[in-house]
Every structure is written in C-alpha cells, then in structure tokens.
Amino acid sequence: MPVDVVGVGANSIDFVYRLPAYPRPDSAFAKLSITEHWISCGGQVTTALATCAAMGLSTSYIGTIGSDAHGRRMRDELQRRGIDLSHAITRDAGNPFAVILVDDREGERVVLWHRGPRLALAASEIDHDAIVSARLVHVDDVDLDASIEAARLARATGTPVTSDIERTTEDVKALIAAVAIPIFAEHVPLALTGETELPRALERLRQPHHAMLCVTLGARGALLLAAGEIIQEPGIAVKTVDTTGAGDVFRGAFIYALLRGDEPREILRFANAAAALSCTRPGAMSSVPTLAEISALARSA
Questions:
Q1: Domains plus CATH for the chain?
Q2: pLDDT tens digits for the chain (301 residues)?
Q3: Closest by alpha carbon to 8, among 94, 125, 98?
C-alpha cells in the first residue's frame, strides 16, 4: 500500500543520563551524581518518522533492527506509533544504542553511540516498490550506499527526497548529489566547502536538481536556500529540558509542512516550532509534539 513517507536509516535505543554538569577529569566534575536516568527509543530516521506519524502521515521504515530485547523494544514502539515495519530487517545482533549525557543546566547533550557492523544496510536490500510508491523518501548518512540507492530510485520517478546529513567526509557528497532537499547539521556545509559563511557554503553545494537546501542552527533556528533566496527563521525561545532528537523532530515537521504545500518560510517556522517543543521534553521519540501543539506555537511565535 502506498504511504506518505518512507524513511531509510538508523534507529537507536537511548540510555539517557541527566547530570548536574558535564564530566571532566581531574576536576570537581570527575565524579557526578546522576540526577535522573531513563531508556527511550530514538534514532535519526525513526524519530523523524515518529514525528510524521504523530501528524497523521502514513509512514514506513526501511532499516535494520537487532534481535535482542532492545530490538524488540524498538519494534514495539514503532508499531505502537503506526509505523509500517514490513520492509524492516531483523538482524541476529544487538540493536544500535546510544548513551546520552544531558547537562541539567541548559539541556544540551553529548551522544556516545554504538552500531555493530552486522547491522549495516546494503543497497541491494532497498525495496524498489516501497520507494517508488511513497510521496516522499527521507534518508540519513549512516549507510551511504543504501541511502543513495533509495534516493536514486525515488528521484527516477520524481519523488522528493529529504536527508539528514551530519557527516563531513568526502563520500557524503554523493548522497548530497542524490537527494532533492539536503538538510544539514550546521557544521557540515562549512566543513565540506571551506567557506566561513553558510549562505556561500550552500551556494557552492547547490546542484541544479536541488529544490531547497536547509541547515539547522539549534536554538538559533534554521536557514534555507530556495529559488536563489536565503531565508532564515529564528528559533523559538523555550525552557530547554533536553535537546535529544530536536533535529530529527525538525526534519519530520519539515516533511509534513512540505507535503502540505507550505511556502519555504512557513516550512521553517513550523519545523522550528516542532523542534522547540521537543526540547521542553525528555528523550527523542518521547518528545515528539502533536500537530495541534506545533500549529499553536508556530502561530504565536
């Protein structure tokens, strides 16, 4: 059955620890009492899909899930959220996981992650029919060959492809070339081009088939290059509890607004509102806001 959004990429079980400060050896912060801790479901693509699903879009996940208890937890959570797993692959391996340290003072976090080599997704494992029947395909830069193949199949049928790009290695340029709407973490365009200003970096990365290029700026909002114009929308000030998953929620909301037909500036405003709301709650998928909450904050901002 055709779906609105097919996501290709990573999932993660997150072990989250709130700390009164960041650890630092040979200092008063070498030993810290944990303020709070919990386990939650996350991952770049799966959190973006959870955001799309929360807004009423039909979603499907293509990726690898471990066969252990954490993998079962991930499957249960994705299915509970209505995300189709008929194209997901179970591997006889431990599920990807991350240890996330959250600073109590500002809610910023450090992520330590592990994903075993047996969980790699090959290009040959991308389901052609699932890709070409989607309204939009979203990929990340974890398994590059698989993401490039999914983007290639989608673009051949005119299906828009968005991306989550955090890597700065030369090989990620092939993924940028394959997608229609690359969405970058802030450090990526500057590192890939050697430019010192984001607008110039995006101009250098832009290719004729790129509909838009977007950069997330954390609390400062987001920037977009569309039709030769640089559009910047400031972030929305909130009391930050945990920034885990905010960029993934931004991408899910961006996808929803794009499919809804919003203008570029409205897409950014809506996605910024979603990311801001997610920062007021702990965890990744557990921080996904509702459509009504996002719409209300975007109107009032």
A1: 5-10+43-93+121-300 (3.40.1190.20)
A2: 789 999 999 999 999 998 988 888 888 888 889 998 889 999 999 999 999 999 999 999 999 999 999 999 999 999 999 999 999 999 999 999 999 898 887 767 788 999 999 999 999 999 999 999 999 999 999 999 999 999 999 999 999 999 999 999 999 999 999 999 999 999 999 999 999 999 999 999 999 999 999 999 999 999 999 999 999 999 999 998 888 899 999 999 999 999 999 999 999 999 999 999 999 998 899 999 999 999 999 998 7
A3: 125
Contacts of residue 146, Cβ cutoff 8 Å, sequence gap at least 6: 8, 121, 122, 123, 125, 126
90 Cβ partners below 8 Å, 6+ apart? 64, 65, 66, 67, 71
- Which tokens belong to 141? 């830069």
Query: What DSSP designation does 25 have?
Result: T
Cα 171 to its chain centre, rounded Å, is: 19
Beta bridge pairs of residue 100? 16, 111
> DSSP readout, 75-139?
HHHHHHTTEE-TT-EEESSPPPEEEEEEETTT--EEEEEE--GGGPPPGGGS-HHHHHT-SEEEE
Output the DSSP codes for 158-194.
Answer: T--EEEEB---STTHHHHHHH-SB-EEETHHHHHHH-
- Residue 122 to residue 266: CA distance in whole angstroms: 36
